[in-house]
Amino acid sequence: MLSALVNSFKIPDLKRRLIITGMLIAVYRIGCYVPTPGIDGVALGEFFNRIAKTQGGTLFGIMNMFSGGAMERLTIFALGIMPYISASIIMQLLTAVIPQLEKIAKEGKAGYEKINQFTRCGTVALALIQSFFIAMWLENPARFEGLKIVMQPGIGFRILTVFTLTTGTIFIMWLGEQIQERGIGNGISLVITAGIISRIPAAIAQLWVLISPFSPARRQIQPLTILVMLVLLCAVVFAVIMIIQGQRKIPVQYARRVVGRKIYGGQSTYIPLKVDTSGVIAIIFAQSIILFPATLASFIPNPAFQMWAQNLVRGHFLYTMVYSLLIIFFCYFYTAIVFNPIDISENMKKYGGFIPGIRPGNPTSEYLDFVMTRITLAGAIFIAIIAILPDFIMAWLKVPYLIASFAGGTSILIVVGVMLDTIKQIESHLVMHNYEGFIKGAKIKGRR
Predict the structure, then answer these.
(1) Model pLDDT, residue 20
(2) Residue ranges per domain, the chain?
(3) Other residues' Cβ atoms within 10 Å of the Cβ of residue 88
């Protein structure tokens, strides 16, 4: 691995892409510390310290995680990339249900550009709406237990906040596209990963205080607990890699066709069906729904509603059950949207392909749907276990949520998945370079 890393900087094109990626991510992290005008950062930090006691159990915790801590400081990147993620998911759903959008999506690169342009417009619209409600939310001191967050509330502050946060989201979207085009890896995913990784120093500092190696009297966590967490972390990372890489290969045989004096087809291939098709999207959907009542309860002073919402916060049995069932449901829901067995069977039939032992046409689509349903169940249960794992770690090892979240949950899924994808792209550049060096100057057998 070290030799491959060294070789990455020996290839000029790959070296340039890695440097550009690092510089753009650095720009993003610098922007996460540029404050929004008109905000009292000390009072806002105090508010987020109070809601942190809920173990990240509000929508603000999700937004803060995806923005790399920019939300709790309300910087120019406070919205993060969440509006773009929401717009992308909405466009995927609309493409599956609107025939016109589905037709555009099948037009190749031109269709991709049109869909991407619709996603950008949707991102701007969502960012404008979210930033406006955030500005209205910040102006009400009653929601912050007497803390005055906005120094000069009014229409001027709202307009400034809306334009600042929306512009920040558009700039992050542009950074992600530049990484995608000129750098290495998936730009948007790398931006999210950079935000999650930026929380590691804070988690280590909090862990150091709990361990207190030079003051045993103040120690709250024993060294054996740290060892257990490290073993658990390695096991979770290994399991996540296995599930992300896991595939069910459906064999496909293409019939031979004789056209003139040439023979086409006859080769064997396979259809890779991923065990985890939805990735972290199912968790994002489930978190947004189950944490919505708890977030509303902080704004609505209704005792009955607040009592009901308290049963749907992290640590309660009802929360764990509903959260797990929502993840499993959205795993199937997203898989049904992105995986269309009818289209696959029609394309196979069009080019003379068939699954051995399965008749082409409707029996093929039914077989693919049956196989995908079974493997999706295994992937959905695994994703649900990983998502609720931080809750069990907190209850078992008595550690804060910030520390437990790095041993499971959304963070570990995103980081591992993005790192695997980035490593694959780097390896493809290395393999391509080696192939070019091998073929150059070589002779082809049978020719003089």
Answers:
(1) 92
(2) 16-198, 223-448
(3) 18
Give the Cα separation of 357 and 91 in Å (integer). 37
Residue type, 366: E
* 39-49 per-position pLDDT tens digit: 877 777 777 66
Q: What is the pLDDT of residue 435?
A: 41
Residue pair 194/28 in contact by the 8 Å Cβ criterion: yes
The rounded distance, in Å, linking the Cα atoms of 100 and 315 is 45
Out of 7-21, 49-63, 157-171, give the one with best mean pLDDT. 157-171
Q: Tokens at residue 157, please?
A: 């502050």
Phi, psi of 204 (to 5 degrees): -65, -40
Give kind and range of the element (H or E) at residue 130.
helix 109-138
Residues 6+ apart with CB under 8 A from 255: 265, 266, 352, 353, 354
Pairwise CA distance, residues 168 & 82, whole Å: 12
**The residue to which tokens 């064999």 are assigned:** 251
Quick one: which of 100, 90, 167 has its CA closest to 127? Answer: 167
Instruction: State the CATH architecture for 16-198.
Output: Orthogonal Bundle (1.10)
The Cβ of residue 155 has, within 10 Å, a number of other Cβ atoms equal to: 8
Which run of H or of E encompasses 206? Answer: helix 200-211
**What distance in Å separates the CA atoms of residue 299 and residue 382, rounded to the nearest whole number?**
34
pLDDT at 7 over 80: no
Which H/E stretch holds residue 374?
helix 362-397
Per-residue pLDDT tens over the stretch 268-300: 788 888 888 887 778 877 877 776 676 666 666
| 262-264 vs 268-274, strand pairing mode | unpaired
> Rounded to an integer, what distance in angstroms lies between the CA atom of residue 220 and that of residue 403?
14
Q: What is the CATH number of domain 223-448?
A: 1.10.3370.10
Instruction: Report long-range pairs for 17-20 (Cβ below 8 Å, ≥24 apart).
Output: 17/182, 17/183, 17/184, 17/429, 18/183, 18/184, 18/426, 20/178, 20/179, 20/182, 20/183
Length of the chain measured in residues: 448
Three-state secondary structure readout of 45-89: HHHHHHHHHHCCCCHHHHHHHHCCCHHHHCECCCCCCHHHHHHHH
> Cβ distance 371 to 248 under 8 Å?
yes
Strands lying side by side in the sheet with 353-354: 268-274, 247-254, 353-354
Interval 209-239: pLDDT, tens:
888 877 777 778 888 888 888 888 888 889 8
The pairing of strands 247-254 and 353-354 is antiparallel
